Every structure is written in structure tokens, then in C-alpha cells.
Amino acid sequence: FAALETADPEIARVLLAEVERQRTGLQLIASENFTSPAVLAALGSTLADKYAEGYPGERYYGGCLEADKAERLAVERAKELFSAEHANVQPHSGTAANLAAYAALTEPGDPVLAMELPHGGHLTHGSRVNFSGKWFHPIGYRVRPDTEEIDYDEVRDLALAHRPKMIICGATAYPRLIDFARFRAIADEAGAYLVVDAAHFMGLVAGGAVPSPVPHADVVTCTSHKVLRGPRGGMILCRAELAQRIDKAVFPFSQGGPMMHVIAAKAVALREASRPGFRTYAHQVVKNARALAAGLAAEGMRPVAGGTDTHLALADLRGLGVSGRDAEARCDLARITLTKNAIPYDPERPAVASGIRVGSPSVTTQGMREGEMRQIAALIGVAVRSNPDTAGGASRLADAADEVAALVRRFPAYGRQEVLA
Ligand code: PLP
Questions:
Q1: Whose CA is nearest to atom 14 of ligand 1?
Q2: Which residues, 6 or more positions from 258, have their beta carbon under 8 angstroms from its beta carbon?
Q3: What is the pLDDT of residues 189-237, one digit of tens each?
Q4: How many angstroms separate the CA atoms of 80 and 88, rounded?
Q5: For 304, what's the count of Cα atoms within 13 Å in the CB-facing half-sphere?
Q6: Cα angle at 287 between 285 and 290, to 5 degrees?
Q7: Where is the site labelled Plays an important role in substrate specificity (predicted)?
Q8: Distance 83 CA to ligand 1 centre (A)
């Protein structure tokens, strides 16, 4: 870090300020986490310099001996951790992993059945502003209005009516478990491939806190960040018979040189995730999310789908008469970082939204437990109800920010030394 401070003080200041931001507030974004110093060390390594187009043993560049070792370790660890026949650790992101799954299993224009974005699906599940909606024929399934859980009858009806080439399950904002066996049965009946996009919950699978999609899916795509607590990046798992198609769909179809430093960091994270402590963490992530959801309910914020089985909760704020957008801004003033989120059948436009999404991975990594979750939910309640344009509201937000600062001091995210060494 000393070298960076000398070479580029402006960027050094940004990095320092970001450590400070992460350490002095509550990070409740469901897709974020705090990576270990070991993961950060691999990310900051000279493997970043290396070109290694191709796969281990079949590269288009010389000098790939160490790159090959790193990638083989990442692949073997991913296969072992998730009991998968094949793993590709090269996708640069979850989006890149999904693009490769489309490329491996479908042709442009094919019908693809996936969850609608306003009901919790991801952009890559058929949104019109994304490749998936522009180049394919998206068909969307939703959650039931009464239970706010996936409407499996609708999924089956749509699958039989449209005969999609591929069905995707897995979501960005869905708090309940997904019935992979039911999706498998529907895919078989309709003659479709089943892709599980496990980006959000693969860390919970690694820790045994939720069931694995691997035995049910043709292809599982995921990210290595989020609950899994690795570097930002993607991964794909599949059965051996699809291995070649998946590998070709990543390179050379949709990517060039892999990011070898990120692949090394993925290997580190996968090793960390195979340790017993990770199981404890993953189970605590779910307990904490449940405690957060219950705490928000006590503050008048209705948990969507009645609660959570995973690392995230969605809360409907209409009972408090505050929009998701205002809630996000008010929480920000109290040093609580979370996202506004559409709720199913949301009457508001997405930029305003009627809900918030909260996630427990980061605070769990910090060592917080259910007691702290109750305190956090109460702080969110105060923040959401405090209008910063009134004197009383502004002072309540300032008090909440002080309480947040005191709480996170007890559970430091990073010792500054270890991150900036
Ligand atoms: N799939 C799902 C379900 C996601 O929630 C996300 C990101 O949040 C992605 C894919 C994409 O991951 P990335 O942001 O790495 O492209």
C-alpha cells in the first residue's frame, strides 16, 4: 500500500475511504460480503499479469505452468465441494456464466422460461434490456399473489404451452427455498434443459445450509462472491456430458483470457468454504436473516413470502407509508447500507419500489448473531420512520448513525492493517 500511496495518492485515498466506509457502517446488501485477507492477497497478486487463453494443459500462451496449477486447484475444489462432475471457473461474473449457459444450451430466438425480474428474477433471466431478452424469446413465471412463493403450476403450464429450450430457476430477490426436484420434473415433461442460477445462495449450499441444486440441474451457474465469500466472479458446474459445450461457450465463444488472479482467489475461497467453520457461518447466515425478517416484521415492515429460508429478506414498507427509495436514502443517513427492492405485484415503479431487501452475509462474517439482528432491525425501523427534512427526524437519524458506529466497532469488518498491508 505504501507503493500505491506514493504512485497514486488519489486512488490510495479512495481505497482508504472505502475501507473506512465498510468498517464504519452496516453492510446489509444481500449480494455483498467481506472477503478474507487470503482472498484479497490472491487478487492483488502477479497472476493478474498472466495471459492464459485456453484451459490447463491446452493454453494458447507460453509460461502457463503456475496458471495451470491455480486453475486445476480451483476446478478440483469446486468439483469436490459441490459434488459436481465438471466445473468451469473462468467466467468473469455471474452474468458471463449465464451467457455461457445460454450459448451452450440454446440458439438465438429460442424460448427460455425464467422468473420475471419484478418477481425476483435476474436481468439475465429475460429482461428486455439484457442479451437474454433481446436475443432470446423470454417467457416469465411469477410468484403466487397469496403466498408470494413460486407458482409451480404456472411454471408447468407455461413450460407445456411454450416448450422452452431451457428453464431457469434461481433468483436475485427470492427469500424461500426453491423446489429443484419439481423444476426438474417440469423440465423433463417439457423436454427442456434445467439451469439453476445459484448466484445468490451457492455459499449456503457450500455450507450445507440449503439443499444443493447440483443433482437436479443440467447446469448450475453461480458467482464466487456473495454468500460464498470469494472474489467477484462466476463459475459453472455441470454433468460430464455437457462439459465440452460449457467450456467452449466460455472460451472461445464469450470470453478471451481468463483472469488468473481471480481464479487463484476463487481457489482460496473454495478451500475456505470447505472448512468446518464455513458450515457454522452458513447456518448462522440463515438464522440471522430469519431474525432480521422477524425484527423488521415487529417494526411494521411485512416480510414478503412470510419470512426467509436463506440469506435475504424482502420487506414490504407500505404499512409504514414509506417508499423503498426513501427508506434506502434514510438508512444511508444512519450508516445502514441496503437496497430498495420491488415487491411482487408492486404498484410502484422500480425506481421507487415498495420494499427493501436486506441480507445477512456481511454482518454474519463480522461475527454478529441474532441479538445484533434484532438491534439492527430496530435501527432500520427508526431510520425508515425518520424524515430527514424535519428537525426531529434528522436528529433521530444522527442518533441511529451513532448507535450503528458503536455496534460495528464491536465487530470490526477488517483490521485496517491486514487489508492494507
Ligand atoms: N444471477 C443472479 C441470480 C444474480 O443475483 C446475479 C447478481 O446479483 C447475477 C446472476 C449476476 O452476477 P454478476 O453481477 O457477477 O454479473
A1: 94
A2: 52, 53, 71, 90, 251
A3: 999 999 999 999 999 999 999 999 999 999 999 999 999 999 999 999 9
A4: 13
A5: 31
A6: 110
A7: 225
A8: 22
Mean pLDDT in residue range 89-108: 98
Ligand 1: atom nearest CA of 225 is 15
According to the annotation, is 123 in a ligand binding site?
yes
Cα of 225 from ligand 1 centre, angstroms? 10
Q: Given this model, what pLDDT does residue 1 score? A: 84
User: Which residues are known catalytic residues?
Assistant: 51, 53, 197, 223, 226, 232
Q: Which residues contact 176 (CB under 8 A, 6 or more apart)?
A: 149, 150, 305, 308, 309, 310
CA 16 to each of CA 11, 33, 72, 410: distance values in angstroms, whole numbers, following the listed order: 9, 18, 34, 20
Tens of pLDDT, residue by residue over 341-363, are: 999 999 999 999 999 999 999 99
Q: Is 121 annotated as a binding residue?
A: yes
Q: Would you say 218 and 249 are in contact if contact means Cβ atoms under 8 Å apart?
A: no
Contact between 364 and 140 under an 8 Å Cβ cutoff? The reply is no
Q: Which uninterrupted H or E stretch holds 125?
A: none
Residue 170 CA: which ligand 1 atom is closest? 3
pTM here is 0.96
* CA 390 to ligand 1 centroid distance, Å: 38
SS3 211: coil
CA of 302 to the centre of ligand 1 (A): 25
Ligand 1 interacting residues, C-beta cut-off 6 A? 31, 93-95, 98, 122, 124, 170-172, 197, 199-200, 223, 234
Q: Give the closest residue (by CA) to ligand 1 atom 9.
A: 94
What are the pLDDT digits (tens) for 41-88? 999 999 999 999 999 999 999 999 999 999 999 999 999 999 999 999
Which cell numbers in the block locate residue 218?
A: 443440467
Residue 421 has pLDDT above 80, yes or no: no
Protein residue with its CA nearest to atom 13 in ligand 1: 94
Grid coordinates representing 133 are: 431478452
